[in-house]
Design goal:
Blueprint: H1 3-48, H2 53-60, H3 72-95, H4 101-122, H5 129-150, H6 160-186
Length: about 190
């Protein structure tokens, strides 16, 4: 094989490897976005429902000490932020409408986790909550960096199908977040 052919062959292999790396990174980012989006949508929506006094009272009966350390209004506000962050990780990406919101949502979730770490350190809750918030925030930072610099999502023009798919995904997330709270309230003993 001639030197020129070897160079071309080497470039083809290099391009193929780069494409595989970009594909793997994109798949990893999408997996993280969906998992974190669903997680924060669910937990956030559950907190939002605590605006209802009956739901708040039920929540205070759970064996999570920090629930008692924050006022109901702050708890609901945290839920709104988490819910919007979770939705922001998924909807702009799947619709292609304003995908630059994905890294902003991830950065917002990272900020929530940084504040949560400070809160739990101040309360001396080192064994579970601080490590959990570090992992949750760390993955959110990975998503923010990945979607801002490494593998941004390309914007696409709005279409009826994209908007409909976004609304269906939003409806599914809201229903899935509402159902466990409804079940807990209606089947409480």
């Amino acid at each position: 094989m001639s030197t020129a052919a070897q160079v071309v062959d080497s470039q083809l292999v290099s391009n193929h490897n780069a494409t595989q790396t970009h594909s793997a990174l994109n798949a990893t980012l999408w997996s993280a976005q969906v998992l974190w989006g669903v997680l924060f949508s669910f937990t956030g929506f559950g907190k939002i429902l605590c605006f209802n006094q009956a739901v708040w009272n039920q929540t205070l009966h759970q064996p999570v000490a920090w629930f008692h350390a924050v006022p109901q209004e702050l708890f609901v506000f945290i839920g709104i932020c988490e819910f919007l962050g979770g939705i922001g990780l998924i909807l702009p990406g799947i619709t292609g409408i304003e995908p630059k919101l994905v890294p902003l949502a991830a950065a917002g979730i990272s900020l929530i986790m940084i504040l949560a770490i400070g809160f739990h350190i101040a309360r001396g809750e080192y064994s579970f909550f601080v490590p959990m918030n570090l992992v949750l925030g760390g993955v959110a930072v990975f998503i923010a960096y990945g979607r801002l610099y490494a593998r941004p999502i390309a914007a696409r023009p709005a279409s009826a199908l994209r908007v409909l798919s976004g609304l269906v995904a939003l409806g599914a997330l809201v229903f899935a977040g509402w159902f466990p709270v409804w079940y807990q309230l209606t089947h409480a003993h």
